[in-house]
């Protein structure tokens, strides 16, 4: 059968047309042929591909090859390595200043109480300490409220000024939050400080967009390595939090050169941190022991427990964030009130549980019983602290206080592991001699506490390799690796299916509280409005839990760009169309010729019927082989009638819809391709004029963002 092709030019749509989003086209008039008892007539038309004026494949290949060469040259530029070193230097200095600022504020407000410890505060009479314990965190909330208002005030400035000044104000807010004892941690702000410095250095010295992601990774590595004084863990953190979650569109980044930049930045920042803050690790590693390889199932059970606790922690945070947002929007409570209420709440809780206050890692040392002359906490109190710390930290984040979740995760993990270890030791000691559990040697609770810290960090922040390397780097004991790997792997696995980085397009509201609603069809009754903040109820937003895990703000800027780009600008105008009577072999041949992974199914009137993908054909070929069918005579109608779900198009786009709306729908329904129709004819059917997929959306956004980033005066001078 000969392959016919036609040339179709896309007409510009009038700007006044309302964008349409069509849902659930009617059942396909496919012939059931061999798989149905009620046959439909098979349409008779040759398959086609619709094309627009595009360069031939050879030219396209040449362009891609040239671009890849330029990418390698950009990474070989000495300015790239110099930029990475500067990121390490300035991040190390900034983190030292940040931590010293926290210490100064703590000394000013608490008058030496943190050095006496939470145990001393617990034993003091309430009438002598309640004023300071309650009102110091509340005072911190008041100052943070003012700083947050200042951050919002600079939102009207240019992007670069807003980013620079906003980062400084956020770091100051974190200093006050932590210095006044509120239940958050300093490592998250340290990462954001490093990423902010990386962005500024990139904008000043190295404006190449292909190296921006590498510098961001270097900044995050520097933040973690200087915060924990653990350079190796910082390098792996950069890989897990920045490089792995990045879009495939950033595949041009050179892994080798990026790794060099990350290592240099992490090492330099760690050295500066040692000089400025001392060579001691973030927390004291207690004496511990491992008795028997037979304990491994106990550590796996601890990992399971930490995974469940991590899940509860994340879900409570997401829930409280939603509650506070509703109180602000529905009840009308002003945002500046919330940090004050958050600090006041933490102070009230601290009257009964002073261990939840952030006083560095002294309270973690207390849990691990690594401080001399300090009595350890009982198992039931440790379990209580797990619940109370989760509540206090979630309230701090929901009420707008500034800080990270790394230190609270380590605290909760230490309390969980210590309580678990004490319970196991007690259960074995009190077991019936007939069961012979007394012969099982178990490690000290401190060993379980250390493993619990790593498991909780991995579960909450989804950085399992970082958690393992951090504890291994601090303990320098190879024996801890196997228990760590087992517990961390289980904890991370439990939470991984429930937590997503919602900075992906369409799942998180744009900054400054600007919501966004998908453009919907005006005349369709079965469509529903979807806000950008709407997400499946069983998912937790990892970026809400720990914002430093989403330091690349390109997605936010991309969303703003996507709101201004219409589908007609991003869709593919060269696509394959087939009929129900088309042979499957011919459809595959057309897809191969056009380098497409799908084909649009149309009828005699060129109205949309469905979408045929290579995956559908591949799965059907296995079915046909099992049924001993001749694959050379199989038709498109047969693959579509064999399974009611195949070939159907749940949604279609129109050319005047913005691509942010289209991509939100694609994310919600897990679609990789969406046909673009000119207008609705009947039952949301129409004539296809293009095909929208994720690759063309990403390419369009990158191209337009690059064009906007070019300096107009420089380009004009070159042209002249």
Alpha carbon gyration radius: 29 Å
Strand order of the largest sheet: 1-3-6-7-8
**H/I helix tally:** 27
Summed over residues and divided by their number, the pLDDT gives a mean of 75
The end-to-end distance, rounded to whole angstroms, is: 54 Å
Largest sheet: 5 strands, mixed
Structure description:
It is a multi-pass membrane protein. With 720 residues, this protein is of the alpha/beta class. It contains 27 helices and 11 strands. It has helices at 57-75, 78-110, 113-116, 118-123, 126-153, 159-179, 187-204, 212-228, 231-243, 255-277, 296-331, 337-352, 362-367, 379-398, 406-429, 445-461, 464-475, 481-496, 542-545, 554-562, 567-570, 584-594, 614-626, 636-642, 659-668, 694-709, 712-719, and strands spanning 4-7, 21-23, 48-51, 499-500, 540-541, 575-578, 598-602, 608-613, 651-653, 673-677, 688-693. Strands 1-3-6-7-8 form a 5-stranded mixed sheet. Helix 5 packs antiparallel against helix 6 (159-179), helix 9 runs antiparallel to helix 17 and helix 11 (296-331) packs across helix 16 (445-461). Residues 1-46, 51-73, 247-252, 503-518, 520-538 and 712-720 have low confidence and may be disordered.
How do you describe this structure in short?
It is a multi-pass membrane protein. GO terms for molecular function: chloride channel activity. The protein has 720 residues and is α/β, with parallel strands linked by helices.
């Amino acid at each position: 059968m000969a392959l016919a092709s036609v040339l179709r030019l896309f007409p510009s749509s009038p700007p006044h047309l309302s964008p349409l989003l069509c849902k659930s086209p009617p059942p396909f008039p496919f012939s059931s042929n061999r798989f149905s008892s009620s046959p439909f007539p098979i349409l008779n038309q040759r398959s086609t591909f619709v094309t627009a004026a595009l360069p031939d494949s050879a030219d396209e290949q040449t362009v891609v090859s040239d671009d890849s060469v330029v990418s390698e040259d950009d990474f070989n530029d000495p300015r790239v390595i110099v930029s990475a070193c500067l990121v390490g230097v300035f991040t190390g200095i900034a983190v030292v200043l940040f931590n010293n600022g926290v210490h100064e504020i703590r000394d000013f407000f608490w008058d030496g109480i943190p050095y006496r410890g939470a145990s001393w505060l617990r034993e003091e009479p309430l009438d002598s300490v309640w004023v300071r314990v309650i009102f110091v965190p509340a005072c911190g909330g008041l100052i943070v409220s003012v700083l947050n208002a200042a951050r919002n005030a600079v939102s009207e400035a240019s992007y670069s000024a807003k980013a620079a000044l906003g980062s400084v104000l956020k770091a100051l807010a974190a200093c006050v939050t932590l210095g006044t004892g509120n239940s958050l941690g300093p490592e998250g702000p340290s990462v954001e400080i490093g990423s902010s410095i990386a962005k500024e250095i990139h904008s000043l010295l190295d404006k190449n967009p292909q190296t921006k992601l590498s510098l961001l990774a270097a900044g995050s590595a520097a933040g973690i390595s200087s915060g924990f004084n653990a350079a190796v863990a910082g390098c792996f953190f950069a890989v897990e939090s920045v490089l792995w979650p990045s879009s495939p569109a950033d595949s041009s980044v050179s892994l080798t050169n990026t790794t060099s930049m990350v290592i240099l930045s992490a090492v330099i920042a760690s050295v500066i941190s040692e000089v400025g803050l001392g060579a001691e690790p973030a927390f004291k590693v207690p004496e511990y022991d491992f008795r028997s390889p037979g304990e491994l199932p106990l550590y796996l059970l601890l990992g399971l427990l930490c995974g469940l606790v991590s899940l509860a922690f994340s879900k409570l945070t997401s829930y409280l964030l939603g509650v506070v947002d509703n109180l602000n929007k529905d009840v009308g409570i002003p945002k500046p009130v919330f940090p004050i209420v958050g600090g006041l709440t933490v102070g009230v809780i601290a009257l009964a549980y002073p261990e939840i206050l952030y006083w560095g890692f002294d309270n973690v040392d207390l849990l691990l019983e690594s401080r001399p002359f300090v009595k350890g906490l009982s198992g039931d109190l440790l379990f209580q602290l797990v619940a109370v710390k989760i509540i206090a930290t979630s309230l701090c984040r929901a009420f707008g206080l500034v800080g990270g979740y790394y230190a609270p995760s380590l605290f909760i993990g230490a309390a969980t592991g210590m309580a678990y270890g004490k319970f196991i030791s007690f259960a074995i000691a009190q077991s019936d001699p007939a069961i012979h559990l007394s012969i099982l040697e178990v490690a000290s609770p401190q060993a379980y506490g250390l493993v619990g810290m790593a498991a909780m960090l991995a579960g909450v922040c989804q950085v399992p390799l970082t958690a393992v390397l951090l504890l291994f780097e601090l303990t320098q004991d190879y024996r801890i690796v196997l228990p760590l790997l087992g517990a961390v792997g289980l904890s991370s696995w439990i939470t991984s299916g429930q937590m997503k980085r919602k900075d992906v397009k369409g799942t998180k509201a744009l900054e400054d509280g600007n919501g966004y609603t998908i453009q919907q069809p005006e005349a369709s009754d079965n469509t529903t409005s979807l806000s950008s903040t709407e997400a499946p109820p069983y998912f937790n937003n990892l970026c809400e839990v720990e914002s430093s895990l989403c330091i690349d703000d390109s997605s936010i800027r991309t969303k703003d760009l996507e709101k201004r780009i219409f589908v007609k600008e991003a869709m593919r105008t060269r696509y394959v169309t087939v009929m129900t009577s088309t042979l499957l072999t011919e459809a595959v041949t057309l897809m191969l010729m056009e380098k497409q992974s799908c084909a649009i199914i149309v009828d005699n009137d060129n109205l949309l019927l469905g979408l045929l993908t290579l995956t559908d054909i591949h799965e059907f070929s296995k079915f046909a082989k099992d049924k001993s069918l001749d694959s050379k005579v199989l038709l498109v109608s047969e693959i579509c009638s064999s399974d009611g779900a195949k070939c159907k198009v749940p949604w279609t786009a129109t050319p005047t819809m913005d691509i942010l709306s289209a991509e939100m729908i694609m994310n919600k329904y897990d679609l990789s391709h969406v046909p673009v129709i000119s207008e609705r004819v009947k039952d949301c059917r129409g004539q296809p004029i293009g095909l929208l997929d994720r690759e063309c959306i990403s390419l369009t956004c990158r191209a337009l963002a690059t064009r906007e980033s070019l300096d107009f005066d420089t380009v004009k001078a070159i042209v002249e």
